[in-house]
Amino acid sequence: MKKIFPFVLLCLMAFSFWGFRALHPIQFPDKIALYESHNRYKEPLLKERRFKHADIVPLLNALPAAYRLKVVGKSVEGRNIYSATMGNGPVSVLLWSQMHGDEPTATMALFDIFRFMQRHDEFDGFRDQILSKLTIHVVPMLNPDGAERYTRRNVQDIDINRDAQRLQTPEGNILKAIRDSVQADWGFNLHDQSRYYAAGNVPKTAAISFLAPAFDEAKTMSEKRSDAARLIGVMNKTIQEIIPGSVGKYDDTFEPRAFGDNIQKWGTRTILIETGALPGDPEKQELRRINYTAILTALSAIADESYKNMPVSEYDGIPFNNSNAFHDLLLREIQLPTLRGKFFVSDLAYRNDEVQLADNRSFYLSSKISELGDLSTFFAYNDKNLNGYKAKMGKVYPTILADFAAAKSLDVATLLSQGITYIQVTNFKKSKEIMNFPLHIIQPNTNVPKEFKIGLNPSFVLEKEGKIQYAVVNGTLHDLGKLAVSK
Ligand SMILES: [Zn+2]
Question: DSSP letters along 118-146, please?
Answer without folding.
Answer: T--STTHHHHHHHHHHEEEEEE--S-HHH
